[in-house]
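Morning - PXL inputs below, output right after.
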Amino acid sequence: MIKVATIAGSDASGGAGLEADLKTFEEYGLYGMAAVTALATMDPAQEWAHRVFPVSGEALRAQLETVFRGVGVAAAKSGMLGSPYAVELTREFIASYRVKNYVLDPVMVCKGAGEALNPELNQAVADKLLPLAEVVTPNLFEASQLSGLPEATTLEAMKETARVIAGKGAHTVFVKGGAKLAGAAKAFDVFYDGNDFEVLEAELLKTNWTHGAGCTTSAAIAAGLARGLSVRAAVRLAKRFITQSLAAGFPLNKWVGPGNPASWRKAY
Ligand code: PXL
């Protein structure tokens, strides 16, 4: 059995965070593990306002020991970290266990939660984790934060942010969210391997049920790497996986709806 781990927050509503990651790993036929960094909750009495409760450094370290020392992984991803010590512990374990297939999802904001959770934390992610990442998977907002460039409004600008982020140490960069560009006819994303750009595209889905899309995408890339795919192949397959998942999205309530990673099976 191939093992893969996520270092991420729990989304109590089940659509994003480590819940999305574990569902995705399952679809790839892998054994998934999780080190929980924080608990994210959404308040139905407050228009689904998010709260984040970080897990203690002691508890996170103990989980990382379980996963990396106690078992070992073919690949890992990180998502919401939620505290400076979670960034540092992630760096320590990814570096000391020489996890080559490390996917950094630089989660800075949850959909609907508004602004960047914490600019200093984002800087720590850039400084400590980008250089370890085989792939970093920012959306347009996160790519702007990591690159220091304005948020991209064109494909060319997405490429430029990818180039700048690669210059900060990530091996490869996958800038997502081109579906949001004005007048976009397709759901574009940009992959940059340090030399060449590839624009990936899929049909543009008209849906509000996209909760957890970023988590699912980075988990799918980690899963592809764990299965031995090249980064480029893992990214291409992840793009198909998330498109399929979003095509099967559904509402949880009046505020939010996730994709459905299980739609990949097409068995029902
Ligand atoms: O989608 C970003 C995200 C990541 N991780 C956790 C979340 C969310 C958004 O709600 O709750 C745990």
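Note: The beta strands are 3-11, 31-43, 49-54, 75-78, 102-104, 135-136, 172-175, 186-192, 197-203.

O.
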